[in-house]
Amino acid sequence: MINYDLKKIKAIIFDVDGVLSSEVISMHPDGEPMRTVNIKDGYAIQLACKQGLHIAIMTGGNTESVYRRYTGLGVADVYMKCSVKIKTYEEFLAKYSLTDDEILYMGDDIPDYEIMKRCGCPCCPADACPEIKDISIYISNRNGGMGCGRDIIEQVLRVHGKWMSDAKAFGW
């Protein structure tokens, strides 16, 4: 269980590579990186969006398939080509008038470090790098791309009384 007052959480921000997809990326013959997705992560993301939790994606990548995947699940804030993620994080906070303690961020590697040092609830997958594990409040028992997103969303929605709470839970 996440050792944080999850009632404070108004937004969850995810990195993609190594968090919502595995850390291994196949390359398409045309050079496009091909990422994996986890169906249970997808279900939890779309439910969280329906239940009014702000979900954001911040990735250094820039592929149409990532954008389509997460906007298709209802994510309004998909930030691509984030070379310095802390700047995008600050813009996201300002856009929704959020504070650091209202943010759960899940990352797995050094580009996530600055945000994770600042946000209220830094979390990571089981296979995150040591520096990220060291600063995380919660380390999921799931690896990146293997349901770690579902793990944290489910915990947050349960605390908010929004997991399996109404008809929204039973469809896509």
UniProtKB/TrEMBL annotation:
Entries under Pfam families matching the protein: Hydrolase_3
Coiled coil recorded as keyword: no
Domain of life the protein comes from: Bacteria
InterPro entries cross-referenced by the UniProt entry: CMP-NeuNAc_synthase, HAD-like_sf, HAD_sf, KdsC_fam
Cofactor: Mg(2+)
Keywords for the protein's UniProt record, in alphabetical order: Hydrolase, Magnesium, Metal-binding
Gene Ontology molecular function: hydrolase activity
SUPFAM superfamilies on file: HAD-like (SSF56784)
The family this protein is said to belong to: Belongs to the KdsC family.
Oligomeric form and interacting partners: Homotetramer.
Full protein name: HAD hydrolase family protein
